[in-house]
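Sequence, please.
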C-alpha cells in the first residue's frame, strides 16, 4: 500500500508510545466517501422505520373513520407495532452475534418488505394488527443492528456523528411521510391511505446497496477472518500503515480473548451487567419521556389542541418533525466535539421544560378533567369531550358535549374536533410541543442509542444491544397502549407531568451513572466498566475533558 501524508509506522514504536500513535492516526482520520456510502446505506433501515411512524401518525386520523376505532383500539394499533419491535430486537441481537451484522441488516429489509406487502391486504382490524406487528418486528431489528454496525465501523473521533445518521434518516423519512400524508389527507379513505403506507415497500429497493456493504470488521476479527478485516479497515483508515491496521486487529482480538465466548448468562455477571443496566436504564427512561408515543398521536393531539382540519393538523405535525431534524443536525455536529454527557444532560433538561409547558398548555384546553360517566358532564370542555370516543362537541349555545349516537348530536351539529376558538392557547401549546420535540431530538432521542452501541464487549454486543432495543420497544408498547386510556383517568396534563417526572429521574441517572465515551475506542470504553463505579465515573469525565481539548482535524 502506498503511504499517505498521515501514515504512521509502528516498526520502531515501543509499547509506551503505541497508544499515542494510535490516537494520532485516529485524530488524522477523516470520513471517506466509501464510509459515508456504507453508513447511509445501512441507515436506510432507519429511513424505512421513520417513514412508517410518520404514516401511522397521520393514518390514525383516517383509520378511525373507516374502522370506527375506539380509544382502546387506537392504542392497540400503536402498541402492537411496538410489541413487534420488542421481539424483533431480542431475536436480532442473537442473530447479529451468531450469523453477523450484515446478515441481520438483510433480515431487517426482508421483514420491512413483508410488512408493507401485508399492508396492501389489510382490510379489517385483525389483518391490520398482523401488518403492524410485522412492521414493528422489522423496526426492532433496525433499532438494534444499525447503531451497532455503524459504531463498529466508525473511526473513534467520528463515531457519534456517523451513528447519528440513523436518527437523521429516521426523522427525514418521518418528514417525507407526513408530506405525502398531507397530499392525501383530504381524501380520508383508508384504502388509499393504506396503499400510501404500502408504497413504503418501494424503499426496500434501496437495500440493493446492502450487497455492496461489508461485514463489520470487528465481527470478522471475532470469527478469525483477520485478512478480510484488514481490507475493510484499509477503506476506513486509508492513510494508515499496515502496522497500524494489524495493531488495531490485535487490540480487538485481545478483547475477544479476554471476554471468552459470549452468552446471555454473561450479562448477569460483573462487569457485564453494569453496561447492560446503564443502557437499558437510558432506553427505558427515554421512552418514559413520552416522545415516541406523543409523535404517534401527534396529528390527533394537534386536533385536540384546536387546529381543526385534518390537513392542518398534519401540517403542524410536519413542522414539529422538521424542527426535530434541525436539532439532530446540531447534535450531529457537536456530538464528537463537546461530548455525549453535556449534550444529553442539556437535552433532558430542555425536554423537562418542554413537557411542563406542554402540560400547562393542555391544562388551558382540556383542563384536569377525567373521564365522565356521560358526555353531558364534560359541559363546555371541548378537549376533554372529544378525547372520549363516545362523545362529540358542538359550539351551539355556548358549547355542549353530547353523545355521538344521540339525536341531540344531529340537532346541534356536532364535531369530533375542537374548533379554533382559543387560538392563543392553541399556539402556546403547539409551541410547547415543538420545544419538547426539539430538545428531545438534541440528545435524548439519539445519544441513548449511541451509548448502547458503544459500551458492550464485542462478544456479547449483539445480544446486549438486542436486549436494550427490546426494553425500549417494550416500554414504548406499554406507554403507547395506555396513553389514551390513561389520559381519560389522570388527564393529558397529568400524563405530561408524569413524563416530566420520569425525565427528571433520567437526568439524575445520566449525571450519576453515565461515563463520557467521546474520543475512546470501543475497546477502551469496555475497560471503563472493569473499575469500581465511583472510580470510573470520575476518571472517565476527567479523560473526556482532556480529549475535548485535544486538537481535532477540521471537518
Amino acid at each position: 500500500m502506498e503511504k499517505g501524508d498521515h501514515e504512521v509506522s509502528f516498526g520502531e514504536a515501543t509499547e509506551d508510545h503505541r497508544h499515542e500513535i494510535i490516537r494520532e492516526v485516529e485524530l488524522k482520520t477523516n470520513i471517506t466517501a466509501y464510509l459515508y456510502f456504507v453508513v447511509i446505506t445501512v441507515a436506510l433501515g432507519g429511513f424505512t422505520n421513520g417513514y412508517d411512524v410518520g404514516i401511522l401518525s397521520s393514518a390514525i386520523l383516517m383509520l378511525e373513520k373507516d374502522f370506527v376505532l375506539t380509544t382502546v383500539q387506537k392504542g392497540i394499533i400503536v402498541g402492537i407495532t411496538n410489541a413487534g419491535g420488542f421481539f424483533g430486537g431480542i431475536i436480532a441481537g442473537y442473530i447479529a452475534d451468531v450469523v453477523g451484522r450484515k446478515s441481520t441488516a438483510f433480515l431487517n429489509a426482508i421483514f420491512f418488505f413483508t410488512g408493507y406487502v401485508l399492508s396492501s391486504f389489510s382490510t379489517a382490524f385483525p389483518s391490520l394488527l398482523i401488518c403492524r406487528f410485522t412492521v414493528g418486528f422489522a423496526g426492532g431489528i433496525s433499532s438494534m443492528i444499525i447503531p451497532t454496525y455503524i459504531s463498529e465501523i466508525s473511526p473513534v473521533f467520528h463515531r457519534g456523528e456517523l451513528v447519528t445518521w440513523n436518527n437523521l434518516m429516521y426523522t427525514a423519512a418521518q418528514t417525507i411521510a407526513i408530506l405525502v400524508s398531507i397530499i392525501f389527507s383530504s381524501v380520508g379513505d383508508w384504502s388509499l391511505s393504506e396503499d400510501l403506507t404500502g408504497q413504503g415497500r418501494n424503499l426496500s429497493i434501496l437495500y440493493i446497496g446492502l450487497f455492496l456493504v461489508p461485514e463489520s470488521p470487528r465481527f470478522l476479527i471475532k470469527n478469525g477472518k483477520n485478512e478480510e478485516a484488514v481490507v475493510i479497515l484499509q477503506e476506513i483508515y486509508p492513510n494508515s500503515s499496515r502496522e497500524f491496521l494489524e495493531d488495531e486487529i490485535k487490540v480487538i482480538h485481545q478483547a475477544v480473548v479476554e471476554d471468552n465466548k459470549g452468552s446471555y448468562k454473561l450479562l448477569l455477571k460483573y462487569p457485564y451487567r453494569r453496561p447492560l443496566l446503564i443502557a437499558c436504564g437510558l432506553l427505558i427512561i427515554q421512552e418514559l419521556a413520552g416522545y415516541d408515543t406523543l409523535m404517534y398521536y401527534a396529528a390527533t393531539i394537534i386536533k385536540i389542541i384546536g387546529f381543526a382540519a385534518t390537513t392542518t393538523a398534519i401540517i403542524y405535525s410536519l413542522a414539529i418533525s422538521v424542527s426535530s431534524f434541525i436539532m439532530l443536525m446540531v447534535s450531529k455536529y457537536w456530538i464528537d466535539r463537546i461530548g455525549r454527557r453535556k449534550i444529553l444532560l442539556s437535552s433532558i433538561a430542555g425536554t423537562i421544560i418542554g413537557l411542563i409547558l406542554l402540560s400547562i398548555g393542555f391544562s388551558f384546553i382540556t383542563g384536569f378533567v377525567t373521564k365522565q360517566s356521560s358526555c353531558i358532564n364534560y359541559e363546555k370542555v371541548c378537549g376533554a369531550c372529544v378525547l372520549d370516543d363516545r362523545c362529540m362537541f358542538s359550539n351551539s349555545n355556548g358549547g355542549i358535549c353530547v353523545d355521538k349516537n344521540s339525536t341531540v348530536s344531529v340537532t346541534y351539529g356536532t364535531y369530533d374536533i375542537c374548533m379554533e376558538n382559543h387560538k392563543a392557547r392553541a399556539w402556546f401549546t403547539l409551541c410547547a410541543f415543538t420545544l419538547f420535540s426539539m430538545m428531545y431530538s438534541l440528545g435524548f432521542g439519539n445519544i441513548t442509542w449511541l451509548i448502547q452501541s458503544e459500551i458492550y464487549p464485542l462478544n456479547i454486543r449483539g445480544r446486549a444491544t438486542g436486549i436494550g432495543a427490546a426494553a425500549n420497544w417494550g416500554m414504548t408498547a406499554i406507554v403507547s397502549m395506555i396513553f389514551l386510556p390513561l389520559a381519560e383517568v389522570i388527564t393529558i396534563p397529568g400524563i405530561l407531568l408524569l413524563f416530566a417526572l420520569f425525565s427528571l429521574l433520567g437526568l439524575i441517572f445520566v449525571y450519576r451513572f453515565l461515563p463520557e465515551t467521546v474520543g475512546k475506542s470501543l475497546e477502551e470504553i469496555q475497560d471503563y466498566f472493569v473499575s469500581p463505579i465511583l472510580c470510573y465515573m470520575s476518571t472517565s469525565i476527567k479523560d473526556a475533558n482532556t480529549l475535548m481539548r485535544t486538537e481535532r482535524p477540521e471537518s
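Confidence is low (pLDDT under 50) at residues 1-13, 190-198, 533-555.
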